[in-house]
What we know:
Blueprint lengths: L1 E7 L5 H14 L4 E7 L6 H6 L21 E9 L2 E2 L1 H7 L3 H6 L6 E8 L6 H14 L3 E3 L23 E3 L10 H22 L1
Parallel strand pairs: 1-2, 1-3, 3-5, 5-6, 5-7
Antiparallel strand pairs: 3-4
Helix pairs in contact: 1-6
Bound molecules: flavin mononucleotide (FMN).
Amino acid sequence: MARILILYYSGYGHTEIMAGAVADGVNAVEGCEAVVKRVPELVPDEVAAGSGMKVDQAAPFASPDELADYDGIIFGTPTRFGNMAAQMRNFLDQTGGLWARGALIGKPASVFVSTASQHGGQETTITSFHTTLLHHGMIVIGLPYSFAGNTIMSEISGGTPYGASTIAGGDGSRMPSENELAGARFQGEHVARITLKLTA
Ligand SMILES: Cc1cc2nc3c(=O)[nH]c(=O)nc-3n(C[C@H](O)[C@H](O)[C@H](O)COP(=O)(O)O)c2cc1C
């Protein structure tokens, strides 16, 4: 059984929902099992509760060292000024020991994202995230155009060749659309199939 970690941070629940869809895609592949975890919050509890953040997320927190235990890892983050969220950065900055041991070399990795606006940094957030994954020697996987929803023109939608994405809206009221969730499932399935081949 190949075990794939879906590791995310989500302030308001959009990335959390996308993580669930990615997990569904992984679990749809026979021989693959998704484990969904999140990185620890850095915002104080009272600030999070007072600013409408989604504090009741079911996924347990991951520890940096456990990344080595998985056959592949799919990361999810909201954008912060076109880059990954500080919570995810902080977590990854604790993986120096894994890097020193080369513990993630050769493992497949992929990234999905949430932004408030259509052009608010979906692609830069994913591709700048890839830099860290490449320093770890991971094999970067995107969301290929065989996912037809990447070229949808009939509605506003996330979906990039670099990874699945959703648009939350300026006030966070827009939830992931069917097309965006389909992209997330496709990405999960795609990574799972490649992971199976690499672990065979
Ligand atoms: C400090 C900060 C910076 C942000 N920067 C951007 C940005 O550059 N572009 C954008 O579209 N959204 C930006 N956002 C909005 C978040 O990306 C949005 O709240 C998030 O995608 C929602 O996903 P979540 O519910 O998983 O947290 C920013 C939010 C915060 C708090």
